[in-house]
Amino acid sequence: MSPSAPPGRTSPVTATLAENRLGVPAVLFFVLSAATPFTVVAGVITTGFATTGLTGIPFAFLLVGLLLGLFSVGYVSMARHVANAGAFYSYIAQGIGRPAGVGAAWVALLAYNALQVGLYGAIGAATQPLLYQWFGITPYWWVIALVAWAVTATLGVRRIDLNGHVLAVLLLAEVAVIMVYNVGSLAHPADGRYSYEALDPGNLLGPGVGAILILAVLGSVGFEAAVVFSEESRDPRRTVRTATYLSVAVIAVLYALSGWAMTVAAGSDRIVEVARVQGTEVVFNQAGAYLGNTLVEIGHVLFATSLVAAMIAFHNTTARYMFALGRERVLPAGFGRADRVSGAPRTASLWQSAVGLTVIVAYAVGDGDPLIHLFYWAGTSGGLGVLFLIAATSVAVVAFFGRYPHGESVWRRLIAPTVATLALTVVVVLAVGNVAALLGVSDAHPIAWAVPTGYLAAAVGGTAWGLILKRTRPDVYATIGLGARSVAASTLYTPGHVSAGREAAR
Amino acid sequence: MMRLADDFWRLSHHDVSGKPRLNGRAAGLGLAAALLAELMWAGKIDVRDGTLWVVDKRPPADVLEHTVLEQLLAEPQHTTVRIWLDFLAKDAVEQVAQRLWRAGHLRKETSWRLLRPAGVRWVPVDWNAAHWPTARLSIHLRDRTPMKPADAFLASLAAATGFDEDLLEDAPAAGREYLRYLTATAAPPLRELLVRTEAAVGESVLSYRS
């Protein structure tokens, strides 16, 4: 036993370090604020109905919620034993192997970039009704997108994250308004009868099931973030675990309910047609019919703020990914430099902004459809990438605990992760087979094979780069997956030191 | 007596206005590392494998060093370098500023906004003295001339906290290589302190929230 502070006096060190400790509500709010519900309900679910022509999306949210809950059992357990717990590639590097970790990092860069950039395609559709109503103007979508881009780029470099309290208020408002909309829709079923088709497990057997599962994964992106706080939560064993389970459950139930309410109000046989005509306006038109214009206007405002909050959240996530990889020297070291004054990951943030600007300009010049071909295609492609990462992480959890049980129970280190891995493998196979259905194109369309091929190329290219590093830069190779801590491991321990990560983590 | 933290404070603040040139978290961690390094130089503590312990309990002459040593002695249950860096980082900017003030190197300046005091800033009394560490290290890094261990540590600490660019304006590429050499050849406990600081600064970028 180590000696402790004199009795009757709180230890100043413990007290000071505890000031920043987070409880379940703080972590939960952090995760759900980045989940930005209105973006999913008004943006993803409606365009999902329109593009896939499938009505089983609400059921897919419930199923994916269960699956992610099962996955989280091992995922959260492993978080306490790995460095850089915020990133899937770290799990894969430390569970499967460092070359696979670099492959996963490249897949992650592609996926999170797609998620972030795709959001620029929806901001036009979200704000045009308001701008017309308030000012009588209808700007081009790309004008609005460029304004949103400028805001995101500036905040990213100056390191002004949206204040946590502002995000919490926005989140509560979004959930409240969505629930009011749901009640309104459910109180007015089409033709006076309730259809449960959207929640029918039989949807699993229908065609295109892989597509709706990817959509549900896309809607759930963000649940993985709670583990970032594994080291700064009040009770490391329980806080993050509880917050992760709760966020997965809230996301699954809220979106399943909202999607189902849409099909009830429109009629499950007509929702696809309605969504194709009305786009992101489906929920607002339904609300307008029963609840009045004020609530519709509030909803429109929240949809816009939700999209901007999501842009900023994903911008910062992607920039931090690049920063961590720069610190590891897996990307050029310049990516690991922070802004001197603001402490923002400057180089990474500027790159992310450059990618966003390029894509907006390319779509504006090429006259691409911002909602379907940018927001929906990039978003769902990003969702597919995150699904690959989750599945690979699940394998990594099984492999990691196979080598180091770390005193975790059999359920947490073996049974739950194994079942989750098997189920996720099935989902991945279904998803890859249904990319064309997901994107709403024919099987022969170039985009239908370009998306999976792109991820394959990233995974293979990254793994190859990892193997090259092993031969040419053993010092860099030794610290792959350790994030900011890689510096301690690479400088203080000889390359190849088995437990470099855990030593550095002390 | 080695006043490393004083020089790091001067490096990380503007020589005329006293405004910070480095974000608060990184500056705090850098000053925390400098204070621990002062205790190492004085033979009071040692560091290895992420762990820190006191080797000489007799109080140092300097008041601030004495305070830090007292804190280390009062809580022997906390042994990792990382915890002490985090703890000391919280108040280090203010603590070191007060030491400089007691020695007559800084003065307090109250800024006013609409007839209300808006805050107190520490301003260097003599900007030549305040600029000296920056000038000294820049010249050494530019000419790649041998440095005293204390200066080599300070330059490496600037790199670890992310504002070495300021010191490398004249010759970035060659200077950066020299900095890497300085860090790699520092005495093992100092090198350990440097990389723990760099890791902590990196993690503060990754886990930032408002």
Automatic annotation (TrEMBL), chain A:
The main location is membrane
**Is the Transcription keyword given for this protein?**
no
Location(s), subcellular? Cell membrane
Transmembrane parts of this sequence: 27-50, 56-78, 99-120, 140-157, 164-184, 204-230, 242-262, 301-323, 344-365, 377-402, 414-441, 447-468
Which top-level group of life is the source organism from?
Answer: Bacteria
Mention any Pfam family matching this sequence: AA_permease_2
Is Membrane among the key words of this record? yes
Q: How does it sit in the membrane?
A: Multi-pass membrane protein
Alphabetized, the UniProt keywords read: Cell membrane, Membrane, Transmembrane, Transmembrane helix
The record ties this protein, via InterPro entries, to: AA/rel_permease1, APC_superfamily
Which PANTHER family does the entry mention? AMINO ACID PERMEASE, AMINO ACID TRANSPORTER-RELATED
- The name under which this protein is listed is Amino acid permease
The organism encoding this protein is Plantactinospora mayteni
UniProtKB/TrEMBL annotation, chain B:
Q: State the InterPro entries in the record.
A: GPP34-like, GPP34-like_sf
Topological category with respect to the lipid bilayer: Peripheral membrane protein
Checking Gene3D superfamilies in the record gives: yeast vps74-n-term truncation variant domain like
Q: Does the keyword ATP-binding apply?
A: no
Looking up Pfam families in the UniProt record yields: GPP34 (PF05719)
Does Cytoplasm show up as a keyword for this record? no
Point out the coiled-coil segments of this chain.
none
Q: What keyword terms does UniProt attach to this protein? A: Golgi apparatus, Lipid-binding, Membrane
> Main subcellular localization, coarse class?
Golgi
Subcellular localization is given as: Golgi apparatus membrane
Protein name (database record): GPP34 family phosphoprotein
Origin organism is Plantactinospora mayteni
